[in-house]
Amino acid sequence: MKNLKKITLLHSNDLHGDFLAKEVDQELLGGISMLSGYIDKVRHEEPNVIYAVSGDMFRGSLIDSEYKGISTIEIMNMLAPDVVTLGNHEIDYGIAHLLFIEKCATFPIINANMYLTTNHVRLFNSHIILNVDGMKILFIGILTEEVLSSARQDKLIGSIVDIHEAAEEVGKICNAYQTEDIDFTVLLTHIGFESDKQLAEILDPRWGVDLIIGGHSHTLLEKPEVVAGIPIVQAAYGTSQIGRFDIMVDTDNNCIDSYEWQLIPIDDDYCPRDHQLEEVITKYKNQTDKKYGRVVTRLASRYTHPKREEETQLGKLFADAFKDALNLDIMFVGSGSIRGEELGPIVRYQDLLQVFPYNDEIYRIFVNGEQLRRMAKHILRKGSLEGLTEFYQLSRGVRLEFDYEKQELISLSVNGYEVQDEDRFSVGIPSFHLGSIEEFMGVTLEEVSAYRRPKVVATKSTDVLEEYFSTRELIRVSGEQRLVVY
Questions:
Q1: CA dist., res. 376 & res. 442, Å (int)
Q2: Does residue 6 contact residue 247 with C-beta atoms inside 8 Å?
Q3: Any idea what DSSP says for residue 222?
Q4: What are the tens digits of pLDDT across the range 412-439?
Q5: Residue 188 and residue 110 in contact, taking contact as beta carbons nearer than 8 Å
Q6: Sign of the C-alpha dihedral, residues 305, 218, 375, 325?
Q7: How far apart are CA 414 and CA 214, in angstroms?
Q8: 294-485 has which CATH code?
Q9: How far apart are CA 392 and CA 216, in angstroms?
Q10: Chain centroid, CA 28 distance in Å
Q11: Distance in angstroms between the alpha carbons of the first and the last residue of the chain
Q12: Residues of CATH 3.90.780.10 domain(s) within the chain?
């Protein structure tokens, strides 16, 4: 007869400082208060509960940006996760600040990827073994390669980024703890859903990986995706839902005997509110409201950004603002920089910063027509419409027609004229994207620097947006289609 024990494993990913509940159809949805209420409720109802977070606690809210993640850590401490892995946005405030933030955390943060290049010593613990009711559960943290874009300026920091290298690292850790009588093993990843599936395919079954709980791609699932016998899950993003595994563990054979998984909505039907946590959030919100509550402008309408992987009204609004303010021929705005789904018509400063929280430098580069066409093709490479690569919003005057299936550029024009090889254009891109220009845009920094060196034309992108919007009223987004994909 099997010796079975039950574990309830709750999981979130890509919280992005999503602290406040939203009112949808006169009902409250999401928010840290009700998320905490649900976690506490389950902890009282079930004997063996683990709560894990698969990266990106930070960046996406005004409160988080204002306090550079310190507010987030205080709030996360009250949620009391049992284990958290790093996401790429944990690096946004710098490596040194992240190491300080880790000291403020009362929960364990794991990551097997990041290390010092001088001696290959990891910056964080690669794993943790949680002891629950006599069971030992091994968690290993794996991070997306995009961390290199933020950490690249620090030559002392390296990362294992290739899927095959990541699999080897998982194997090393699993092999090192085989004698610990591990009951089951969980990979807590932040590499995106498609990469999770690739990773599952190449893991050696003898390593004993039982689950992959992922993040980064904000994937909403109805059921786990099982690859090579390993269930893979995500819980979309934010605090509107939480993933829940109810697992029966075979402690004799050190494996999962059976499981049920569901995505639980965080709403009044399921979740009591944590009023103590609400007081902490309100403290921070009151401070940011005082500082950022002023009205900046009024737009001609409410503009939206419903999906990253398509041209949107908000994407065009921001791209045009940078183009006009900085006197550029073309502006590329990373679609992922836009963190809200709507803005306006009344725009307060805090609304603007909430929707566009990234305060990167803006660089001006010069490219010729051949390079611009190459950039256009690379931006729309396979996977760009599925969320596997960065996607870009284009400024006014650009029209790009592309056959996605054939991967052929049909037409690229600027201000009504087809782009020729000898043409020259001034192009604006944020520093984050300049640092990864070959990966993101398919041209090298050396070749775009050959004609003229990249120049910082704005040290803070939010300063540009504030000035632009505050000096204009009833701004209207033009209706022309800039990106046509067949």
A1: 9
A2: yes
A3: S
A4: 999 999 999 999 999 999 998 998 899 8
A5: yes
A6: positive
A7: 40
A8: 3.90.780.10
A9: 17
A10: 24
A11: 59
A12: 294-485
Residue ranges of the chain assigned to CATH 3.60.21.10:
4-284
Q: Do residues 239 and 36 lie in contact, with contact meaning Cβ atoms separated by under 8 Å?
A: no
- DSSP category for residue 284: H
Rg (CA), the chain: 23
Q: What is the DSSP letter of 382?
A: T
What phi and psi values does residue 188 have, to the nearest 5 degrees? Answer: -105, 100
Question: Do 56 and 216 touch, CB atoms closer than 8 A?
Answer: yes
Residue 399 identity: R
Alpha helices in 421-460 (DSSP H): 431-434, 437-441, 445-449
Compute CA 273 distance to the chain's CA centroid, rounded to the nearest angstrom.
26
H helices within 46-94, ranges in order?
A: 62-66, 70-79
Tell me the torsion sign for CA atoms 13, 82, 110, 245.
negative
211 vs 209: CA distance, rounded Å: 6
Backbone dihedral region of 403: left (phi > 0), alpha (psi from -120 to 50 degrees) or beta? beta
* Whole-angstrom distance, CA of residue 441 vs CA of residue 315: 18
Class of domain 4-284: alpha beta
Q: What is the pTM of this model?
A: 0.79
- Residue 176, both tokens: 């090192």
Per-residue pLDDT of 250-309, as tens digits, reads 988 888 999 999 999 999 887 899 999 999 988 888 888 888 899 999 999 999 999 989
